[in-house]
Design goal:
Elements: E1 19-24, H1 33-46, E2 47-55, H2 63-66, E3 69-73, E4 78-81
Parallel strand pairs: 1-2
Antiparallel strand pairs: 2-4, 3-4
Bound molecules: S-adenosylmethionine (SAM).
């Protein structure tokens, strides 16, 4: 495991992406819908196909990102990125 600072609102992808697991919890609830959508797409891009995205319990992906995810545990907000068809 490696720790590094990363601005989820920035344009640069996080170093080392794509990851097996991306946990981004209780951050997006503070963003306006337009920024939320942009960050959801960035989070999706940071998860490898078959990898897991874990959000905060008050967060839910926008529709276009949700279409790329399988819901593993809706209450815990755990999603798996679909492998491309
Ligand atoms: C409410 S705290 C949640 C902390 C933790 N994830 C949790 O669930 O307990 C929000 C966190 O988002 C971080 N944050 C705010 N804006 C950010 C950004 N643009 N990029 C990355 N982290 C950000 C803050 O530094 C803070 O640690």
């Amino acid at each position: 495991m490696r720790f590094a600072r990363h601005d989820v609102c920035g344009d640069a992808p996080p170093a080392g992406a794509p990851f097996d697991l991306v946990a981004c919890r209780n951050v997006l609830i503070y963003f306006q819908p337009e920024l939320q959508e942009r960050v959801f797409h960035a989070l999706l891009a940071a998860v490898r196909p078959g990898g897991v995205l874990w959000l905060g319990e008050a967060e839910w992906p926008c529709a276009s990102v949700l279409a790329e995810l399988e819901v593993l545990d809706p209450a815990a907000r755990v999603f798996r990125r679909r492998r491309s068809a």
